[in-house]
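Q: I'm writing up a methods section and want to include an example of the input and output format. Could you take the sequence below and give the corresponding predicted structure tokens, formatted cleanly so I can copy it straight into the document?
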Amino acid sequence: MGEIALTGVMAALGDPIRVGLVRVLADGRERGWGELQAPVAKSTLSHHLRVLRDAGLTRTRQEGTRCFVILRRQELQARFPGLLQAVLAAAEDEDVGHQVSVKDAAQPA
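A: Here is the clean output for your methods example:
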């Protein structure tokens, strides 16, 4: 896994959907891509997840036909102390990314 570059991280966080994905993933749980819910097409959601991965914000793991994603919280904290907390606090204050969520287990896919 390459070094996490500031410009890549900042560019990746420049979109409200990606900020919302980071907010959802900030709980530290690994999520299946199918669990993530956003007001965009699946292909667009896949693009946003790829941008986050390419910037080093997330790690993706494939298991059979399923893909899982997790926020690289420890690596981000080590590289940019306090950045993730500041982004999450600002996103909460400004309600950025609120449209991204995790599907309810009882909700059909």
